[in-house]
Each structure stands twice: as C-alpha cells, then as structure tokens.
Amino acid sequence: MDSMTFSATDCNTNETISVWLASILQFALHIGFFKPFETFKLNMKEVRHTVTQKLFALIASIIMGCEYTKDINEILGPESLAANMLSMERFPDQSQINRLLTRTDEESVTQLRDIHNQLFTEHSHSIHSPEPVVIDIDQSGLLAGGKTYEFASKGYFPNKAGKKGYQLSVAFAGEHSEIVDLYLDPGNTHCQNRLEDLLSSITSKYTEHLKDGRLIVRLDSGYGSLENIERFMSIKGLKFIVKGYSTRTAAIIARKVPKSAYKQVSEGAWVYELPQEGRLRVILVRFRRKDGNLTYTLLYTNISRKKLSCEEAFHFYNGRQTIEAFFKMAKNTYGIKNLRTSKFYGIYTFLWMMAMTHNLITWFKVIKVEGTELKGAGVKTLVEKCSRVKGFVERTTEGIRVMIPPFTKLAKLLIEALTRPRYVQLSFLI
Q: Would you say residue 246 lies in a domain?
C-alpha cells in the first residue's frame, strides 16, 4: 500500500496527473465504489485488461469529460498514476472500449442495474435524508445519426421531426442531484410506458420515506392522464404533483372561472384552486404565452393545503427544471448525445456507467467539497474545468505526493478542498 497526499507547490517533475481525476478515484476507492463491479461478467477475451478494468476506464473517461470514445487515448493516455490507482499500468485504449460496448447485451444491462442499486442503497444521500425527498420523472430523446443504429426508431424529438433515435427515461432526485433509475427504449416509446417500472424502483428504494409521507414524485403532462393519477393515489404514503394531460379539459373548466378568482403567481401566470373533492386537489393555471394569447393547464396533487398552498404548488411544480437541467448537462458535459456505439445495449451500458459516475461525482462533491468555495460549482464546471488542473507527481518510499501549482483560481480552490483537515488522505494499490 502506498499513500497519496495533495499539497500546494510550484514544483515541476516529469509526471503529471489530473488532480480532479486523482481526487475522485481516491474518494471512490475509499468508499468501496469499485467493489460491486467485480461481480460483472461478460464473455469477452481478455488480454492486457480485464472487463472490469475497461468499465473503470469508462468511468474515468466520464469523470474527465470525454465526449467520444476517441477522446480516451488522448485524455486518459497520459494518466498513468490514475491507471495505477486502479491496478493498471495504463488505461485501455479506445479500441478496447469500443469492443466492450459492442459485446454487451441485455444481461450486461441487468448486471449494471443491480450494481447501481447496490451502490445507491449504500451511498445515496437522498435515501438517508430525514427531509422529504422529491423525485422527478421525465423522458428525453437521444438522436441516432445513421441507419445502422440498433432498435432506433422514429418518435418524438423536438424540432427533429422524422428522425430516428431512442428515449431515455430517468428518475432523478434533483435536490440531491442523484440518478435513481433509468431506462432506454426505442424512439417511438411513450413516456408512460416506463412509468410503472420507475414507480416500482422509486417506492422500493424509499420505503422509509413512503411510510410517513416524505416521498414526492413530480411529473409533467406526459404522465398526467386520469388513469395515472388514480395510480398515484393508490400508492399508500406517496405524494405527487403532476400536470394534467388534457389542455382542452383545462380550457373548458376555465370558462366557468371569473378573472377575479385567480391569484397572480408570476408575471403572466395566475392560479385558481377548484373546490376539493376527497384527497385530490386540482389547480387551474392560466398563463400568457409568448404570442400574447392565454392558455390553461391543470395541476393535480394530493399534498395538503397545510403543507403546500395553491401558489406554492405552482412554484413547486416548476422546480422540475432540475431534471431538465440534468438532461441538458448529461448530453453536453457527459456527451450522452454522442452515442458511443450503434449497438443498443452498448448505448444502454454507457448510460448506466454515466449514471453511476454522476452519482459518484455528486457524493464526492457533497462530502469533500462541502464548506469550500467549490460547493457552489455545478457538475459542468467541475468536469469541464477542474479536469484541466494538473498536479505534479512525486513518488517516494513514503508514498506519493500530488503537488498542485496554485497558478489559477480554480487550482487554489481545489487545493483548499483537498488539503484541509476534513479531507482524508487515502491509500491505494499500485
């Protein structure tokens, strides 16, 4: 075992490492993040690297913001110390990662979901939160760029009519920035098709929150059918807020509501709560579109007025922007819009690796960056900018020192986070 420590210096040596990558991997080793991957099985010839090591390389590539597999050689190639931390002389090259993604199958995806669930159960901050937890459910399209993409089909892709691709369904704990579960389907799959799977996953993970009404799901109009609302109502302890599927129904109800009954909640938006029948509340929302015309929608919720007023319900629903922001970040920062392979289960595999890596980064941020100026930095900033901060490696008989020149503000912030007493200096095998 060799120890690794971080320090500030202007020292210069031949060997360098991404400080961001080293610190994340060190944290991952400390919490046992890589341990569950040892059970992963895939019928694939191993030469220099095991299947597990190739999965670790995928994790490292996501941490470093590689947008394509072709970036792996250039970005991970120089990171010999990071490879050493994972018991490798060097990281596998892009061709080996491509072969891995090509060989994965449905069973591979099942194994990765199980690994994710194990890691999530052990390390999730939202599961162990004493406060109410809000889970957003949504779907986003991933376009396929060619005809050879397996199972790709035409579907709903905004501003891309007639294109083929896939639909990614995600359950996301926005306040904690954790991916709870995900599913990948052909492009013609409606979001409702995965609702039951996601609900089952959520309720099984948050059993304690469900018992005392601390679990809330938040969904847009794609999930707002009366049938789905009845389903939400049938789950004991579950709280929800969902936008109604039918704007026509909302417009019909609005004809009977005088303008004076509305309460203004923002510029161009007003709300009116219908008389309550039973446990279900119905809130009529009137808002002015960019073209100046008025339109209407309905919000359905079983959260009591005591805990959430009509006006608060409007703003609470709009908090769904967290999952929309996540999809945007994942597509651009993690590069999930750039499909790594034309094989369906290879794409699915990469998405699961992205999900687990994202959660790892989130946990690192909460535990190691809390209380520093980096606390407010988003994942986009951390991955795209912190990954560029280089440290100089000094290997001695006493261990390994990573010395960080404080040349930039970001480097200084990393030094602050990694050298303070709260940061536990860890050990790793090389």
A: yes
